[in-house]
């Protein structure tokens, strides 16, 4: 979750379709008194439901949501990102920011030009980190 102006933007994943480790990414914004600022919205793509597989940061007057996803279960995982308005509405298209076979989790770090996504994972049985840039050009 991230505080963006006077709104708290929260993102989460929920399992569905008999695949307990993959599900839908949803996002919703709340006012500071806890009232919904709009309905929950689903973002595109399949996401891992693993702990650490989703993050949200403030990105100017919007929130940036990143998650570990995959086109379908048992395929290479992708770090995907999408901007969200303070009403909790998706802005622009989801952006693929990195593909890696064994991503365990990710974190977003704000920069002056956008953000970095730091992924932890496994390559040939060795723990590794990978860092990719997330430009804020996924907005129209």
Helix content: under 10%
Q: Return Rg in Å.
A: 14 Å
Taken in chain order, the helices and strands follow as EEEEEEEEEEE
The biggest beta sheet reads: 8 strands, antiparallel
> Span from first to last CA?
23 Å
β-strand number: 11
Beta content comes to over 45%
Average pLDDT, all residues = 80
Q: Which residue ranges are poorly predicted, with pLDDT under 50 across at least 5 consecutive positions?
A: none
Number of domains: 1
Summed up, the helix count is 0
* Class based on secondary structure composition and strand pairing: mainly beta
Outline:
globular
Description:
With 140 residues, the chain is mostly beta strands. The chain has one domain. The protein is built from no helices and 11 strands.
List keywords for this structure.
single chain, 140 residues, mainly beta, 8-stranded antiparallel β-sheet, 3-stranded antiparallel β-sheet, globular
Please give the structural blueprint.
Layout: E1 2-4, E2 7-16, E3 19-31, E4 41-48, E5 54-59, E6 62-70, E7 77-84, E8 90-100, E9 103-111, E10 114-123, E11 126-135
Short description:
The protein contains no helices and eleven strands. It has one domain (2-135).
């Amino acid at each position: 979750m991230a505080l963006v102006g006077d709104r708290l933007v929260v993102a989460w994943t929920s399992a569905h379709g008999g695949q307990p480790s993959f599900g839908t990414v949803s996002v919703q914004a709340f006012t500071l008194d806890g009232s919904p600022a709009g309905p929950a919205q689903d973002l595109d793509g399949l996401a891992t439901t693993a702990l650490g597989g989703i993050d949200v940061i403030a990105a100017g007057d919007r929130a940036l949501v990143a998650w570990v996803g995959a086109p379908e279960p048992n395929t290479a995982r992708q770090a995907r990102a999408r901007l969200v308005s303070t009403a909790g509405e998706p802005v622009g298209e989801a952006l693929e920011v990195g593909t890696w076979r064994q991503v365990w989790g990710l974190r977003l770090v704000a920069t002056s030009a956008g953000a970095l996504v730091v992924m932890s994972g496994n390559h040939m049985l060795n723990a590794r980190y990978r860092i990719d840039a997330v430009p804020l050009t996924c907005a129209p």
